[in-house]
Every structure is written in structure tokens, then in C-alpha cells.
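C-alpha cells incoming
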């Protein structure tokens, strides 16, 4: 009885409320039909509207075939590219898988590290020992021209890795045309047949030279810190009187790996500080569990970047380690890889923070200037020899003088 009385008393009010809600829903639906998104914000609403119109135009007027998924990935990639940050990018599903494989230290490919600065050509900066490319005769310094006859001189690295670092192409033979500069300074084109395979990244190599330990670090992945610590321990057992650490052409990688390696060498204290736009500063420190008490010298060049600069700069600031070579690249910002697998697929790499060395210095767009500047001099004859590597020899000289 009370409910009926309530309905009778407020009948007109309830009808008005219901009518108002129905009207609002109807208006919202109509706005969506016309590509207007009142509650999504300008960016999201604008994207929905523009992509819908462009998609309609392509469907109605484009004369030719197209891949819908590539259009979607292209739109996402274009949005991130519009940030104007060369370190941020969008990964398609296959690219994101490749990135995870790379970080984990294992992937399907040919076993090389390639580099492309700005719009330059793709260059081989390291070749994994015993990898497919090494077995086929590919060398550091080779410039990639073609893959199976397709020109790659004006394409991006990811266009190349989409093909050769692909699980579907495991055990496939590719003909890679490279440009190689000979000892006489003349360039020649060479066709190299390479069979792809599962490549386990060996990012750290070592040997004894004149009683000192030489360690070459090609990149910083999830396996690098463990490999590095084992090499340091092994060299100490061999009686190494110091360490010569080579970071030339090392473009960086996982910051945490570099931090763990610094923790093996340095006593307790401050390492780097990351500052983000959200104000969540993170300070990394080393502990007292392990440290290296013998002299260290680090070799660097213009391709030593990011985690390499963190590693070299922290050793310089904290332990007075001498840097030998040429000015480093100057990448003082950190990228985070964000998975989109549970939402729209793929992933993002976004610049999320800037790092500062132990002395408070930022090296972004400045680089590290070595204590001893030494330009690499072209080998006079024959294959590469450490005896003719002027930078390495200068590093040994500085190390022996300590």
C-alpha cells in the first residue's frame, strides 16, 4: 500500500527522470554516430573521429589490397612517432615478442647487433661468436644493403628484423648483401648466405692480456650481469692485476643489469638517480657484499650509449676510474617497455625518466668526455688484431700505470 502511494505521489517526477535519462542516452548515441566522444577527452575523441573517417575513405575509394592489421598498427605507431621522441615507439605483436626475446637473451635470428643512427644505413656493430652470421663470414662494420635482393638502404632496422628475427623463418636461408670497406679504403658489395637459428646472446667475452683481465660487453640484457660476474670471478682466479672493460659500440640495454654489475665492483654508496614526470624519483645504490679493489679502466666511443654511459659514468664518479677513447653518445633518458598483450596487443617503449650520475650530472645530449682521448686507428693490414687496436693499447697503458 505504501509503495502504491509513493508511486502515485511521485508519478510525474519519476516519469520526468526516466524521460530525461532516455533523452541523454539518445543524444549520446547520436553523438557517437557522428564521431563525437563527449567523455573521452580531446585526444581520444579526435583519434576515434579521424581514424573512422580515414578508414571509411580507404574502404570506399582505395584501389588496391591492404592488410587491416597493418593499418591498425600503423595508426598506433604514427601516434607514438608524433611525440617526436626517437627513443619511444610502438611494437606490433611480432615486434613485441622479438623485444622480449632480445631482453631475455635468446631469439631466432642470425646473431648480430645492428645499429642505425638517425636516418643512416643499417650497420653491423657486433657479431656473436659461433652464431649463424659469424659462421657465414659476416663482419663488424658491414653495412646491410639488401636482403634476398630487396633494397634496405632507406628502410628502418625494424623492417629488417621483422623478417630475419621471426620464429616462422627459423632455419631459413637468406642472402644478405653487405657493403664492406677493405684495407685499401675501397668498398665492395658481398653476398652472404646466412641460415637463421635460435641464438643465445653471449654479451660478455673475456681473456687475459699481459696479466690484466680484458672484458668486452656487447649489450646489457637480462643475462649480462650474471655473465659479467662470472667473468670477473674467473679473471680474479687467474690472477688478473686489474680490469680493462670495453664498452665501445655498446648501445645500452637493461639498466638493472648495469646496476647489478656496478654492485659487483663498487662498495656501498649511491649510484644513479632516476627522475620521472610523476615525481617518483628512484635512487639506486650499491651494497657491501662485493667490491673490486684492483684498478679498472673503461674504453668508450661515440656508440657507447645509455646503460653503457651509466656504467662508465658511475665507475668514474665513484671510483675515479679512467675513461679512454672518444666522447660517448649522450643518451641520459630511460625507456620503459609496457605490455599491451592483455588489452590491444603489442607493446610500447616510452621515455619515462631521466637519469643522473652519482655526482648529479646528466649526460643527455652531452655524453661523457674521456679522461684520455684516443681515436681508433684503422688496422693497417689483415684481420682485426688487439695489438693494432690503438684505443685498447692506450687503455692497457693507463691501466699498467696505476
Amino acid at each position: 500500500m505504501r509503495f502504491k502511494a509513493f508511486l502515485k505521489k511521485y508519478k510525474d517526477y519519476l516519469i520526468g527522470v526516466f524521460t530525461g535519462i532516455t533523452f541523454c542516452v539518445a543524444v549520446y548515441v547520436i553523438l557517437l554516430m557522428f564521431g563525437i566522444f563527449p567523455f573521452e577527452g580531446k585526444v581520444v575523441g579526435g583519434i576515434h573521429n579521424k581514424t573512422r573517417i580515414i578508414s571509411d575513405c580507404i574502404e570506399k575509394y582505395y584501389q588496391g589490397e591492404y592488410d587491416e592489421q597493418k593499418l591498425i598498427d600503423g595508426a598506433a605507431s604514427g601516434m607514438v612517432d608524433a611525440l617526436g621522441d626517437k627513443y619511444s615507439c610502438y611494437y606490433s605483436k611480432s615486434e613485441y615478442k622479438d623485444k622480449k626475446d632480445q631482453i631475455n637473451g635468446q631469439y631466432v635470428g642470425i646473431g648480430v647487433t645492428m645499429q642505425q643512427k638517425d636516418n643512416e644505413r643499417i650497420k653491423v656493430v657486433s657479431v656473436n661468436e659461433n652464431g649463424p652470421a659469424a659462421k657465414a663470414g659476416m663482419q663488424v662494420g658491414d653495412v646491410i644493403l639488401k636482403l634476398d635482393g630487396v633494397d634496405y638502404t632507406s628502410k628502418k632496422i625494424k623492417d629488417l628484423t621483422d623478417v630475419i628475427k621471426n620464429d616462422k623463418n627459423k632455419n631459413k636461408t637468406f642472402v644478405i648483401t653487405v657493403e664492406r670497406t677493405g684495407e685499401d679504403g675501397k668498398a665492395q658489395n658481398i653476398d652472404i648466405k646466412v641460415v637463421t637459428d635460435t641464438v643465445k646472446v653471449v654479451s660478455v667475452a673475456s681473456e687475459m692480456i699481459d696479466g690484466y683481465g680484458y672484458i668486452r660487453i656487447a649489450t646489457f640484457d637480462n643475462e649480462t650481469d650474471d655473465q659479467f660476474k662470472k667473468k670477473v670471478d674467473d679473471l680474479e682466479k687467474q690472477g688478473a692485476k686489474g680490469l680493462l672493460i670495453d664498452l665501445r659500440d655498446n648501445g645500452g640495454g637493461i639498466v638493472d643489469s648495469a646496476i647489478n654489475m656496478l654492485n659487483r665492483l663498487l662498495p656501498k654508496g649511491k649510484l644513479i638517480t632516476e627522475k620521472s614526470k610523476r615525481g617518483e624519483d628512484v635512487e639506486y645504490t650499491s651494497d657491501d657484499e662485493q667490491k673490486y679493489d684492483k684498478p679498472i679502466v673503461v674504453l668508450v666511443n661515440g656508440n657507447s650509449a645509455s646503460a653503457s654511459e651509466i656504467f662508465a659514468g658511475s665507475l668514474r664518479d665513484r671510483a675515479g676510474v679512467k675513461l679512454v677513447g672518444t666522447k660517448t653518445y649522450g643518451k641520459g633518458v630511460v625507456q620503459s617497455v609496457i605490455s599491451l598483450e592483455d588489452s590491444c596487443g603489442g607493446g610500447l617503449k616510452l621515455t619515462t625518466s631521466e637519469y643522473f650520475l652519482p655526482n648529479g650530472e646528466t649526460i643527455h645530449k652531452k655524453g661523457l668526455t674521456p679522461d684520455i682521448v684516443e681515436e681508433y686507428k684503422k688496422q693497417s693490414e689483415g684481420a682485426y688484431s688487439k695489438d693494432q687496436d690503438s684505443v685498447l693499447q692506450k687503455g692497457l697503458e693507463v691501466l699498467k700505470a696505476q
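note: The chain has three domains: 2-85, 106-200, 204-400.
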